[in-house]
């Protein structure tokens, strides 16, 4: 054994140059206070962080495995030495932002009196390091290969809905005007309904004018005419001899 005269006690931070020279020179070394903390025996905890309900919430997942990691959201894994924020591939911007705030508040308010220097690490889905995957037992790197986000599934379901073929009737009678048989204005001015061309509606002779004749006679298109009050339409038709 060594006698007292054979060794010298040197306290960290008070080393003399002779000390550093004896071990090959002074260099940086691991000296974090966290290294003096006894080995952790606290079990890891997993929290599911999501705002899918409209409010950002964090719910603990017990007896968790890899399948409990939700790609649509953010997961917080507390391993005591490190707090991991696992960012799912489909997590939205607000979830990413609020989960960081949550992690800091979680660490600060932990009644166990956590080290405020505990690292908070963000990792993206698909880029998980071994010190993260090790808490999930057997890790399957292909688990989310065919995963579809909620938004992707919604769009897929919508695309599978039967398409309804609907024939739209143009408002204000424009469709009737387009489909009506056309005749020269002189024939339409006939007062005797019996002498009007076949298929002419005697109460709506204006429908049987061509677009050009209609604009010439009424100084407007049929769509504008159809938007007028009925009394004004009748007065205009009387004026041009189509009433």
TrEMBL record:
<dbReference type="GO" id="GO:0015629">
    <property type="term" value="C:actin cytoskeleton"/>
</dbReference>
<protein>
    <recommendedName>
        <fullName>HP domain-containing protein</fullName>
    </recommendedName>
</protein>
<dbReference type="Pfam" id="PF00626">
    <property type="entry name" value="Gelsolin"/>
</dbReference>
<comment type="similarity">
    <text>Belongs to the villin/gelsolin family.</text>
</comment>
<dbReference type="GO" id="GO:0008154">
    <property type="term" value="P:actin polymerization or depolymerization"/>
</dbReference>
<dbReference type="GO" id="GO:0051014">
    <property type="term" value="P:actin filament severing"/>
</dbReference>
<dbReference type="GO" id="GO:0005737">
    <property type="term" value="C:cytoplasm"/>
</dbReference>
<dbReference type="InterPro" id="IPR007123">
    <property type="entry name" value="Gelsolin-like_dom"/>
</dbReference>
<dbReference type="GO" id="GO:0051016">
    <property type="term" value="P:barbed-end actin filament capping"/>
</dbReference>
<keyword id="KW-0117">Actin capping</keyword>
<dbReference type="InterPro" id="IPR036886">
    <property type="entry name" value="Villin_headpiece_dom_sf"/>
</dbReference>
<dbReference type="GO" id="GO:0005546">
    <property type="term" value="F:phosphatidylinositol-4,5-bisphosphate binding"/>
</dbReference>
<keyword id="KW-0677">Repeat</keyword>
<dbReference type="InterPro" id="IPR003128">
    <property type="entry name" value="Villin_headpiece"/>
</dbReference>
<dbReference type="GO" id="GO:0051015">
    <property type="term" value="F:actin filament binding"/>
</dbReference>
<dbReference type="Pfam" id="PF02209">
    <property type="entry name" value="VHP"/>
</dbReference>
<dbReference type="InterPro" id="IPR007122">
    <property type="entry name" value="Villin/Gelsolin"/>
</dbReference>
<feature type="domain" description="HP">
    <location>
        <begin position="177"/>
        <end position="243"/>
    </location>
</feature>
<keyword id="KW-0009">Actin-binding</keyword>
<dbReference type="InterPro" id="IPR029006">
    <property type="entry name" value="ADF-H/Gelsolin-like_dom_sf"/>
</dbReference>
């Amino acid at each position: 054994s060594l006698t007292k005269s054979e060794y010298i006690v040197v306290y960290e931070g008070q080393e003399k140059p002779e000390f550093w020279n004896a071990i090959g020179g002074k260099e940086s070394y691991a000296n974090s206070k966290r290294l003096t903390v006894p080995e952790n025996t606290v079990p890891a905890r997993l929290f599911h962080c999501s705002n899918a309900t409209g409010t950002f919430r964090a719910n603990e997942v017990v007896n968790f495995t890899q399948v409990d990691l939700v790609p649509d959201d953010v997961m917080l894994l507390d391993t005591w030495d490190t707090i991991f924020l696992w960012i799912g591939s489909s997590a939205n911007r607000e979830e990413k932002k609020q989960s960081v705030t949550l992690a800091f508040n979680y660490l600060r308010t932990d009644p166990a009196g956590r080290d405020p220097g505990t690292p908070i690490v963000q990792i993206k889905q698909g880029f998980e390091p071994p010190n993260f995957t090790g808490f999930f037992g057997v890790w399957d790197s292909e688990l989310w290969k065919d995963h579809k986000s909620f938004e992707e599934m919604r769009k897929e379901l919508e695309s599978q809905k039967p398409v309804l073929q609907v024939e739209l009737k143009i408002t204000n009678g424009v469709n009737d005007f387009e489909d009506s048989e056309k005749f020269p204005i002189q024939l339409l001015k006939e007062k005797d309904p019996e002498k009007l061309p076949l298929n002419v509606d005697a109460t709506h002779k204006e429908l049987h004018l061509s677009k050009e004749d209609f604009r010439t006679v009424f100084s407007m298109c049929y769509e504008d005419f159809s938007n007028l009050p009925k009394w004004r339409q009748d007065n205009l038709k009387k004026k041009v001899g189509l009433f």
